[in-house]
């Protein structure tokens, strides 16, 4: 081999080791060691070297994780050591643990005076069992359990899982088979289902089905996009390995080889140790990031395991001790809607009470109308209800086979044309999944949100009116709509928690100051959907007065630059709601005022018609200051670069916006350039 090739070979080896180390830190230890960009750079360097030197490409290279072609079917794999299942203790109380310990003691011939048996205790993961075969440290095969004797070769899919090392760390034996569970984290499951639904693909009922479906996916390129995880819990065949004396040490050794082993494991003694673990994990279950359906107890000594042996296909030395199920069947009695803080109407299932995930559930979310349609859930159906982790119970799916006759469908907009909380009218945008109450200023469900927004720094700027205070004011029914703020007295305020007379005076002064505002701030403060600060300012400039804005129809609104049909519709809907108009009139009557002018000419200011994008940090001007200067001369500041952008003003550490501007060949200014432009137009105008 020539010198040059061996240098490449050394670099390839170093890169693989480094990438494997980062994968282990990120996917196994959950403690990332380098920024993504740096990782990507290492990865690309390795890829380039392998393209240049194809003979250096090996199956344990991280570049070879996704590469397999779609399969027609999975080849069968005969397990060298059968994959057994464990007996399940269905008594979910502490007595379940005592029964197992008593059985083990009896089988071992232990009497009352003999010491406690030592157990390794761990979680029972809710996924599917996989056997990983490593020969001389390299992953050569991954197989499902199948019937325990013969499984399926799912190597190309398992290889895409970056928490599964392609090469073991440290001294590897000739052969070692590591067994464990492939599962999906709850957050990954929800993300996957969201993406599936958006793409119009089928969604999964629970994380276990999602994991099983993904592992049995014939196209490894699709499997690679499925967020799968793995925990090791045991061994299959081993050759040339010095087996430790206990199961606990086996797990330690597996972790040292670089595989994920769950941290929630212990070695305990006797029935009390088992029951304590069962109880501790029960308390933790909801906060775990993945589903478990119980815990597993294993006699720790491998010698005692051998003595105990098996009955049929189950070892006498292990048992799964269950928890109450997280899914249950019940009947959907009706559907009501709940109004959220932002006015979103969520359909809520009224259920025949059912015990699931440790509590009795009577309500569960149905998310939105599209979800109801997609799942075809109807009132009167038998449904699967799921309550896992801290998440709100949800209706997963109807059991169509149990449906009797023609059950009515739920139509949110027909059944709830008006908000069940405030009676304002309900709308749903064409491209939106969610239906909303339009009574933003008036609706009790949206009160807190609306008040906080109204008082915000960029809106009416009422200093000191934060969320804690809003909570108190609304909960005590002192404030219902923004108008009530202008009717507050010191007495009502001073009695609130953490509010002395001084702070009450300060708040009242801030409220008083806010009476005198600008039209733009006032429009923004109303909290109209899709109307941000910039749009509020455009509207104020264009219409000049509130009455002109109130009188505008969708067509007139779309004359305003940057107001399209969606924004126009939001504005029309908001002002069409009489409750909102009432609050606006009351605010004016309470003395909230601003200078009103004539509608601005379309081209006011020397920078009119010019759109700026600010990126990076300018040497002396803050972003708000630069924006104010540009807007003072009629220019517009937009958030993203497009063909419509006139100038990009770039400061230090400008990122992708600058790159995009260069790609589009736009004019790029620095702060000096901007100042020059401003001064020029100043004198010209
Ligand atoms: S040990 C001989 N440990 O439960 C014992 N299994 O019915 C073999 N499982 O197919 C299994 N968590 O998929 C073991 N900590 C754990 C487990 C576990 C989940 C699954 C596994 C197996 C089934 C047993």
What does it look like?
The chain has 685 residues and is of the alpha+beta class. It is globular, with a radius of gyration of 33 Å. It has 5 domains: 62 residues, Helix hairpin bin (Helix Hairpins, Orthogonal Bundle), CATH 1.10.287.610; 236 residues, D-amino Acid Aminotransferase, Chain A, domain 1, CATH 3.30.470.30; 89 residues, Beta Barrel (OB fold (Dihydrolipoamide Acetyltransferase, E2P)); 145 residues, 5' to 3' exonuclease, C-terminal subdomain (DNA polymerase, domain 1, Orthogonal Bundle), CATH 1.10.150.20; 74 residues, Rossmann fold, CATH 3.40.50.10190. Helix 1 packs antiparallel against helix 2, helix 13 crosses helix 14 and helix 18 packs across helix 19. Strands 14, 15, 16, 17, 18, 19 and 20 form a 7-stranded antiparallel beta sheet that branches. The chain has a 5-stranded mixed beta sheet with strand order 2-13-10-3-9. It contains 26 helices and 24 strands. It starts with a helix and ends with a helix. The longest helix is centred in the N-terminal third of the chain and has 26 residues. Keywords: DNA damage, DNA repair, DNA replication, Ligase, Magnesium, Manganese, Metal-binding, NAD, Zinc. This is DNA ligase. It is an enzyme of class 6 (ligase). Pfam families: BRCT (PF00533), DNA_ligase_aden (PF01653), DNA_ligase_ZBD (PF03119), HHH_2 (PF12826), HHH_5 (PF14520), OB_DNA_ligase (PF03120).
